[in-house]
Amino acid sequence: MTDRAVVDSGPPARVSAWSGVRSVRAGRLPRSLHPGAWWCWALGLATAASHTTNPLPLAMIVAAAALVVVRRRGDAPWALAFRMYLVLGAVIVAMRVLFRLVFGGGQGDHVLLHLPEIPLPAWAAGIRLFGPVAAEQLLGGFYDGLRLATMLICLGAANALANPKRLLKAVPGALYAVSTAVVVALSVAPQLVESVLRVRRARRLRGAAGHGLRALRGIAVPVLADALDRSLALAAAMDSRGYGRTAAVPAGQRALTGALVLAGLVGVCVGTYGLLDATVPGYLGLPMLVAGLATAVAGMLLAGRQVRRSRYRPDRWRLAELAVAGCGLATAAVMTMAGTVDPERLYPPVSPLTWPELTPLVVLAVLVAVAPAWLAPPAPTANPAPRPLPVPPAASGRTDHTSPRDTAQPEAHR
Amino acid sequence: MIDFDRVTVRYAESREPMLRDVRLHIPEGELCLVAGRTGAGKSTLLRAINGLVPHFTGGTLYGTVTVHGRDTRAHPPRDLADVVGVVGQDPLAGFVTDTVEEELAYGMEQLALPAPVMRKRVEETLDLLGIAELRDRPLRTLSGGQQQRVAIGAVLTSHPQVLVLDEPTSALDPTAAEDVLAAVTRLVHDLGVTVVVAEHRLERVVQYADRLLYLPGDGTVVDGPPDAVLAGIELAPPLIELGRVAGWTPLPLSVRDARRRAGDLRQRLADASPPPAAPVPDGVPALTARGVVVRYPGTVAVRGVDLDLHPGQVVALMGRNGSGKSSLLWAVQGSGPRQSGTVTVPGPDGDTDPKALPAAQARRRVGLVPQTPGDLLYLETVAAECAQADRESEVPDGTCRELLDHLTPGLPADRHPRDLSEGQRLALALAVQLTAAPPVVLLDEPTRGLDYRAKRQFATVVRRLAAQGRAVVVATHDVELVAILADRVVVIAQGEIVADGTAAEVMLASPAFAPQVAKVLAPQSWLTVDQVTTALTRTEVPR
């Protein structure tokens, strides 16, 4: 998917010569960015959004995210999901406002309209249904909802921009087995659905009704048997293709790795508990968390070294990736700074009603956030024109006797 | 390259060993064909080569298997991955990733090859197998032949010395099978890869093979050059049978060989003429379909097909994978989708559309055995399935069992349906569907995975059904089966009927659908060895 230009530029031998200068020269060629960079950027934006309820910067952050998505997304199915996140954001805002309307509370002086209040029994005291609706109360709901929606839309942007499968491939070596399991599960799920549909159709052939406990059994037994057969075939295929070839690891080291990871995770748990519960001594908080994390990471690094495998076309952190990730971090940092300098502007009071205002720092944060729309290389389009997809039948298998053989032979004989 | 030294394989649950005292030596660069009946141990033999037997499947292996100097006793399959590449029967079941390019790289990633090497080999392999334009495609959207070639490519990228293929063409249409076999022979000839391939349809592969391993089923292996081994075995491709009838030695392995020798046979047959095609029945059709359209999101599977099925006629439905054969059968039966068109079946209470009937009624008009007959079976024993079928069809107890005994006598009643062989399972599914006594029987790719004997048995069963006055449709890729079975052939492409006529008309008109006998004896219009044998005895006895 990445670097089509490099593939097409010459015979395979040139690829390695290219790779040295690639990071400089190929920075602007269409390619998909490391998914981690997009996630870093998006989380930065979301963090920035969480630091304000001011609708102006929030709207600007949404606009920035949308602009980057429109300019830099590919044409994969997940890239089109961004619209869904926008809709979801709108729904969240609407729900928040609606809730304030229904369970009003009735604070505020600027009453917009009077709804008849529904009297509740005494045990529900404190809850009020409908009643007078104040502008402040609606605005508070709107601000709150908008912040949540903005954070969600930022994550949606990452989803649209980063290829989830490549993110899975970028996991550290120690988690390789987990990521393989996820990949297999993702490809097996549609097969299972297909299998269910097929068997259900076949049930009709035997004249059985499509529901009831008996039908469930008629469907479940063949589907499960099918799934079992298939997973055995997959396991055999993976085994014969070299899955699980590990370097010879002495038993002692294996035990050490396990102990490190386990101790680290326990440390993380205790640390988190210490951090959240104010009554425990301080050393059980942050220091414990950090120590636990460090131990776990060390264990995972050790485990990762035992996995002997390489990656095909790995995503590398190049200049563009660093720039995009940096933009996200900078946005978060600038927004936090703006919050310490001028907190009222970032949390505009709803009572009394005031117009939200911008500060230069907030504008700077948004400008930084939108920069990846130009800094990141454009995404490759997988199909420039609808290519003729089906293979030319017999011809490709038999006739071309020269070119492919020439390139393949020397390597093949080793 | 591959050495079997006194190898015996025994599975815990069976008393007889699968392989008994096998000694083999397969030198480098050979294409070795493994033949034998279902359950004779072909898969066991293939899986022993890379250590899946016994490391993965269990069982006990006595003796030693050595591949490229490595003993499978000490090397589990994953440690032989750089020497032996294995492609299973169903390529889709063996795919780990979801796009072509990543699948090609998967094996190399496991071998920890450096990234530049992987990149180079992926490009080479894409070209070598002619799948370069598929590189970004999701694996599930490929056709069967493409999937099979990707599966072969995915093991080739590791540059194995040995390639093991288990029935690589069993699910493919003739053209796709040719593509895959062309790719395989190219590997043997150009790259010197040793290929071991198991195949039921010998006629497709035997001409390319340097060696034939025949497993008669008692655990032994007959090893030798293909023509010598074929001369001694009971069931063989039509070409070999023709050679036996004509008395040619050595037996011809390819159509070309046979054709060069067939001059005198054509002479002897010059006066005889093939039996005339069965007369077109002119009674009321058992099923009439008009303007059937089946649409799925994004594609039209069947576009306005008209079809008449007559009682007593066997119709073969042919066409490449994905041409709409299955969709048509399902639409006609009434259980599958049908967007427009009409289907009428005459019944005791007037003409009806099976789709308008409840499922239990529809199956009494039109019976369908799907591509995977196992989908119909869900109970624990053969007896339970039969009893259930009797109940579903509201017929006297024992009807289904009686039908089953007609199809394959002596199936143990307490056997689990999944433990049956492919042929036995097909027979059971067919018996279950026939219990409802439908006048129209539709069979979707019934002969997948059947050996010659089971196929011949199946052909007899189908002829018997037709003789009972049923209309039978068989969707299949197998031209040799169609030649012995069908009265009428319908060829479907892109959802439209492109040819419809008697078997002889359609099959002799196109090289893709011509059986081997027809290719050898053209321009005379013989389709099967049986026709030739009958003609020879009739013309030559009076002399």
TrEMBL record, chain A:
Q: Give the UniProt keywords, A-Z.
A: Membrane, Transmembrane, Transmembrane helix
Q: How does it sit in the membrane?
A: Multi-pass membrane protein
- The UniProt transmembrane annotation reads 53-70, 82-99, 174-197, 255-276, 282-303, 319-338, 358-377
Keyword Manganese found: no
Instruction: Give the source's domain of life in one word.
Output: Bacteria
Task: Give compartment(s).
Answer: Membrane
Chain intervals with Pro residues compositional bias: 379-393
Q: Name one Pfam family in it.
A: CbiQ
Disordered as annotated region, ranges: 379-414
Classification via InterPro entries: ABC/ECF_trnsptr_transmembrane
Classify the main location.
membrane
So which residues are the signal peptide here? none
Q: Which PANTHER family match?
A: COBALT TRANSPORT PROTEIN, PROTEIN ABCI12, CHLOROPLASTIC
Question: Which protein, by its recorded name, is this?
Answer: Energy-coupling factor transport system permease protein
Top-level taxonomy? Bacteria, Bacillati, Actinomycetota, Actinomycetes, Micromonosporales
UniProtKB/TrEMBL annotation, chain B:
Q: Does this UniProt record's set of keywords contain Nucleotide-binding?
A: yes
Q: Which PANTHER family match?
A: ENERGY-COUPLING FACTOR TRANSPORTER ATP-BINDING PROTEIN ECFA1 (PTHR43553:SF24), HEAVY METAL TRANSPORTER (PTHR43553)
Q: Which organism is it from?
A: Micromonospora gifhornensis
Tell me its family. Answer: Belongs to the ABC transporter superfamily.
* InterPro entries, A to Z: AAA+_ATPase, ABC_transporter-like_ATP-bd, ABC_transporter-like_CS, ABC_transpr_CbiO/EcfA_su, ECF_ABC_transporter_ATP-bd, P-loop_NTPase
The cross-references to PROSITE patterns, in alphabetical order and at most eight, read:
ABC_TRANSPORTER_1, ABC_TRANSPORTER_2
- Report the domain of life of the source organism: Bacteria
Q: Is ATP-binding a UniProt keyword of this protein?
A: yes
The name of this protein is Cobalt ABC transporter ATP-binding protein
Q: Which gene encodes it?
A: cbiO
Q: Where is the ABC transporter domain?
A: 2-242, 287-519
Keywords per UniProt = ATP-binding, Nucleotide-binding, Transport
Annotated GO molecular function terms are: ATP binding
